[in-house]
Specification:
Layout: E1 6-10, H1 17-28, E2 31-34, H2 36-47, H3 52-57, H4 72-81, H5 85-99, E3 105-109, H6 112-116, E4 122-127, H7 130-143, H8 150-166, E5 179-182, H9 188-205
Parallel strand pairs: 1-3, 1-4, 2-3, 4-5
């Protein structure tokens, strides 16, 4: 594939959109950007004492694979800085340029199909119940050896959902025309298969 072909994948935390995005990128030979890492990187800088907008404007993409960005504290900080309009503005240009790169791209996040790439050839909204997502997140934390309480994780998931859906700028919601993939009762293989089918259908149409 030589031209621009964008797959926009949105959805709440722990719904499985990252796993699906990586699988789609691998299957079709597309570049992949987890845009949540952009906000996590800003959140990490804020936790380190930086001002949020300055951190966003000076973000170094080379830091996006830092393992520390996967911690729960950074995730919470990312959700807080994501409601700041100036932070979002600072990161929009980078995301849009990545999305339309030659060879095509998959981007996953919260506002890819609604704000960053409303013209994307494929738009998916990957979701799951709060309970299912909290269980996944809790198991992930336990597997990393972190001390986590299941009920506390569920409360955090619900609070983040409320922040993401209620923010004034780019609230979390399905994009117009998005294919909804509810992974609550799906295996990873089933969720990936549903996403790949949607992309293949779009490619046939195009």
């Amino acid at each position: 594939m030589t031209g621009a072909f964008t797959v926009a994948i949105d959805g709440p935390a722990a719904a499985g959109k990252g796993t699906i995005a990586r699988a789609v990128a691998a299957e079709f030979g597309l570049a992949h950007l987890d845009t949540g890492l952009l906000y996590r990187a800003v959140g990490a800088r804020v936790l380190a004492g930086d001002e949020a907008v300055a951190a966003a404007r000076g973000l170094d993409p080379a830091t996006l694979e830092d393992a520390d960005l996967r911690s729960q504290a950074v995730a919470e900080a990312a959700s807080r800085v994501a409601v700041i309009p100036e932070v979002r503005d600072a990161l929009v240009s980078f995301q849009r340029a990545f999305a339309r790169r030659a060879g095509g791209a998959v981007l996953d996040g919260r506002d890819i199909g609604t704000v960053i790439c409303p013209e994307a050839e494929v738009k998916l909204y990957v979701t799951a119940s709060a309970e299912a997502r909290a269980e996944r997140r809790w198991r992930e934390l336990c597997d990393r050896g972190q001390d986590a309480d299941r009920d506390t994780v569920l409360d955090e998931v619900r609070a983040r959902d409320a922040r993401d859906a209620g923010r004034a700028t780019a609230p979390l919601r399905p994009a117009e025309g998005a294919v909804i993939v509810d992974t609550s009762a799906m295996s990873i293989a089933e969720a990936v298969a549903a996403a790949l089918a949607a992309v293949r259908q779009a490619k046939r149409r195009g």
